[in-house]
């Protein structure tokens, strides 16, 4: 029973930490470039802010899955069976791992979109669309983690 609880908490940690690390890194990639663009033209803050914030969504997805898991096993109020703990661990993997990589890669695509804003601000929507395409895979991973979470019975 103790091992099941350990696996459950590990699932939460993977979902929250990996997606959060990826988001922090992705936002920093875009944010560094955005700061340079805004230094040259402060009016472009709004356009660069959207692109800078996009990689942060993966961290939110991981946080939501992690909190749902914590609420579910907090309701139990005791040790979690081994099989359920392994299921929690597996449920945290998609959003955590995909969130880690997609946030970093989305940060790079968003940085390229910020380059569009710098040279042709009227075309900024194209940069948002490019960055949004990467988001698709984070959303799919979130959905799979959510379905896996919902399949866990205690």
Describe what this molecule looks like in 3D.
The longest helix is centred in the first third of the chain and has 39 residues, at 2-40. The protein has helices at residues 2-40, 45-53, 57-76, 82-119, 124-150. It is built from 5 helices and no strands. The chain starts with a helix and ends with a helix. Helix 1 (2-40) runs antiparallel to helix 2, helix 1 (2-40) packs antiparallel against helix 3 (57-76) and helix 4 (82-119) packs antiparallel against helix 5.
From the structure above, extract its key features:
single chain; Four Helix Bundle (Hemerythrin (Met), subunit A); 154 residues; mainly alpha
Summarize the structure.
86% of the residues lie in helices and 0% in strands.
Helix content: over 70%
What is the helix/strand order? HHHHH
Shape call? elongated
What Rg do the Cα atoms give? 18 Å
Average pLDDT level: 96
Question: Could you name the ranges where pLDDT drops below 50 across 5 or more consecutive residues?
Answer: none
End-to-end distance, in Å? 12 Å
Corresponding CATH superfamily: lithium bound rotor ring of v- atpase
CATH architecture classification name: Up-down Bundle
What is the CATH fold-level name? Answer: Four Helix Bundle (Hemerythrin (Met), subunit A)
- Structural class comes to mainly alpha
Layout of strands and helices, then pairs:
Blueprint (H helix, E strand, L loop, with lengths): L1 H39 L4 H9 L3 H20 L5 H38 L4 H27 L4
